[in-house]
Amino acid sequence: MVCEAETKAKVGVKVGIVLDFSSNVGKMGLSCINMSLSDFYVPHSHYKTRLILNLRDSHTNVVTAASQG
After folding, report:
1. InterPro entries in the record, alphabetically (predicted)?
2. Of 63, 69, 62, 64, which is closest to residue 19 (Cα–Cα)?
3. Backbone Cα Rg of the chain
4. Given CA atoms 17, 35, 40, 4 in this order, what sign does their dihedral have?
5. Where are the alpha helices (DSSP H) in the chain?
6. Alpha carbon of 49 to those of 12, 44, 55, 64, 65: distances in Å?
7. What's the pTM value of the predicted model, to 2 decimals?
8. pLDDT tens, 16-66?
């Protein structure tokens, strides 16, 4: 028999995101990502997996931002 604590455990899935936080596109992109996650999990709150966002600011240089991870 599976204990209740095991069935409620959440599993985190790490996702890397590189955006230029100083640009309007980067700010809007992050806002859209956060809204979409919220909108998704409201009707699917029973899902055990949760996305964990690892954010990096590209400072207009994606290669440097990705390599600092």
Report:
1. Ionotropic_Glu_rcpt
2. 62
3. 16
4. positive
5. 4-8, 24-41, 62-67
6. 6, 10, 19, 30, 27
7. 0.73
8. 999 999 999 999 999 999 999 999 999 999 999 999 999 999 988 878 777
